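Re: duplicated header lines in exported structure tokens

Our pipeline writes sequence and tokens for each protein into one text file. With two proteins the header for the second block appears twice in some exports. Here is an export where it did not happen, for reference. First protein block:
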Amino acid sequence: MVETENVASIPWRPYTPAIAAPPPDQDRACSIRISAHDFQRLGLIAVKKNSTRQKLLKQAVAEFLATMAQDYACACLRDRPGACDKDCGEQA
């Protein structure tokens, strides 16, 4: 434990994050909360499809994002990162 009168003598060091951010091409983490019943149902479907809950959720999100990209016709929402032309219009 550092005593308060000795704090001024502690050398200053620049902050360096302990963990660097993942490169842009790696998956990012995201979590959701679902009911116990839906969690169980998702698990049963995963077993029947020889998959995992994670893979099923990633597939569902990919399908949702593809649908939204079509609905809003905005380059920002398409599959290619960096394709935004800032011409989305007033579609909200």
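Second protein block, exported in the same file:
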Amino acid sequence: MIQNLGQSKGDYLECILLLHNQGAPVRITDLALKMDVKKSSAVSAVKQLEEKTLVVHHKYGQIELTDKGKQVAEKIYKRHKTLTDFFHKYLSIPHEIAENNACSIEHSLDDVTMRQLEKLIDKLDEKGIVISGDSGE
């Protein structure tokens, strides 16, 4: 499902999850501010997510993840965190660059590749291996 969603819609879904986890209702204005887009772009994205039954947008009100939407959003967020941590912790990539790289590829990696990367990270953790190098800073 993640690969079929595309990066932009996946980013919106992940953002809705993160805003929701902060405890306040998620509204179009909040989403547009966080995504740094115009309200009309956020409305369009939410409509597309609603068509895929990933969110429910109450007219002029809050945006809620469906069970399916929450599951997909959490999977995207987990991928994002795993990739960011891998780039930053193991490859000594500066955190902001690691975040950007993770965001660029989290939606396109298949499940098999992610599982293998998670296994690699587990092995590196077990052995205490960290690859240090020039982080560009």
